[in-house]
Amino acid sequence: MRYIPVDEAQVGDRIAEAIYSENGRVLLPVGARLSEAVLSRLSGWGVDRIAVDGEEMPSDEQTRILLEALDHRFTGHEEDPLMMRIKDAARSHLTRHH
Amino acid sequence: MDRDQIRTRIEEAGNLPTLPDVVIRITEMADRAETTGRQLGLEIAKDQVISAKVLRLVNSGFYGFSQPIATVPHAVTLLGFETVKTLVLGSTVLDMMKDALPGLWEHSMACARTSALIAEHALLDDVQEVCTAGLLHDLGKVVLRQSMEDAFRTVVSLVQERDWLFVEAEEHVLGAHHGHFAGWLLEKWGLPDRLVRPIADHHNFHEDQPFARSTAVVHLADILCRAEALGRGGDRKIPRLNPAALEILGMAIDDVLGVMERMSEEMRDIRRV
Ligand SMILES: [Fe+2]
Ligand SMILES: [Fe+2]
Predict the structure, then answer these.
(1) What is the pLDDT of residue B261?
(2) A43 at the B interface (CB within 8 A)?
(3) Domain match, A48 and A6 both
(4) Which of A72, A93, A96, A98 to mutate to test the interface with B (most CBs of B within 10 A)?
(5) Residues in chain B with pLDDT < 50?
(6) Which of B58, B111, B155, B221 is 20 to 30 A from B258, comparing alpha carbons?
(7) How far apart are the C-alpha atoms of B191 and B211, rounded to whole Å?
(8) Which residues 6+ apart lie within 8 Å of A23 measured at CB?
(9) pLDDT over 90 for what percent of chain A?
(10) Cα–Cα distance for residue pair B222/A51, rounded to 1 Å
């Protein structure tokens, strides 16, 4: 199972965790396949992430991507001690969660 | 296009997602001195679509209320009328946020929560108001897309090709940026300066500006959300933190790191990109 943002969901993806409405009604049960029609309705339901069948991205790979993006974001701020402290803290949080 | 022409285009964009009747009605009501917050709450509650949007926003978690808020009049009591009105008006634009730039909605929610965390830490008077400013701080990017789609596209491709900040590309193309755009529109909507200034000036913090403390909060929150990769601002870089913002908030770097710690604990669910 993997979690993906709704805008990355594809027709044919299989739902791995039921999707509920705000008042607890099941909108899509486990095992449902996403159709074009359902796909276009998902964000209207206020859903932004869904669980679908498939391999989770290996977590060290994900971490590597996040850290690369972090380095990139802070280019040009290397001489700024304040920005570097913020970067260090962000790095430890990014590696902790993945 | 000169600045006045740009401003006119932006202000006209405010009418684009044709402002619902209820918005016009409550704006008129709000301008009359004898109107009470409760009357306004009831008026908003008559429009189910708008009140559902507002209630969803106030219950999204970034304000940090422990109890769910079930009615609009209750929201008005807790948040104050100006904040609710801002949410009513802003919700028309927030709807378009998910289409405008990927990750901008997540960035905005994270920035709302972070603004509240900072405002609590720095003991600002109205935490909810600053939180609302944090939520709407990048609204100008959506407004730009709505009002001048060609310019928006040019900005987006400059950001990609030259790896600039979004705000740098906007300045390059238009000589103004999304802070200004949002400021013009919100002013036209008649929102108070204490909500408008932090949004308009979040990329130009200066300690001598009006509402400098609230502006400092949003300026800092934006940078911290980008640092923590919570959502996306539409570019791959990060603006520099103005140290004067920390000074005016009475915060040292260790306070900032404390806020970041709480952000990363509280916002695990927000997509990191
Ligand atoms: Fe911004
Ligand atoms: Fe931002």
Answers:
(1) 95
(2) yes
(3) yes
(4) A93
(5) none
(6) B58
(7) 14
(8) none
(9) 28
(10) 29
- Same domain for A33 and A72, yes or no, is no
Measured CA to CA in angstroms, residue B123 lies from A44, B55, B117 at distances of 37, 26, 10
Contact across the interface for A93 and B56, Cβ inside 8 Å: no
Instruction: Dump the DSSP string for B104-127.
Output: HHHHHHHHHHHHHHHHHHTT-S-H
A57 vs B240, more confident: B240
Rounded to 5 degrees, φ, ψ at A2 are -140, 150
pLDDT for B67: 84
Write down the pLDDT at residue B38. 79
Same domain, A47 and A65: no
Pair type for strands A2-5 and A26-28: unpaired
Second CATH level (architecture) for the domain B3-14+93-266: Orthogonal Bundle (1.10)
Alpha-carbon distance of A80 to B120, in angstroms, equals: 27
| Nearest C-alpha neighbor of B63 from the set B116, B110, B124, B133 | B116
The pLDDT of residue B271: 66
Token output for A40: 């276009």
The number of domains in chain A is 2
- Ligand nearest B224 Cα, by number? 2
- Do both A9 and A29 map to the same domain? yes
pLDDT, residue A97, reads: 57
Both A9 and A48 in one domain: the answer is yes
Question: Tokens 């000074």 belong to which residue?
Answer: B247
Cα first-last separation, chain A: 16
Q: Check CB contact under 8 Å for A77 and B240.
A: yes
What ipTM does this complex have?
0.86
- Taking CA atoms, A85 is separated from A18, A82, B104, B257, B258, in Å, by 41, 5, 25, 8, 12
The ligand whose atoms approach the alpha carbon of B225 most closely is 2
Residues with Cβ within 8 Å of A31's Cβ and at least 6 positions away in sequence, in order, are A14, A15
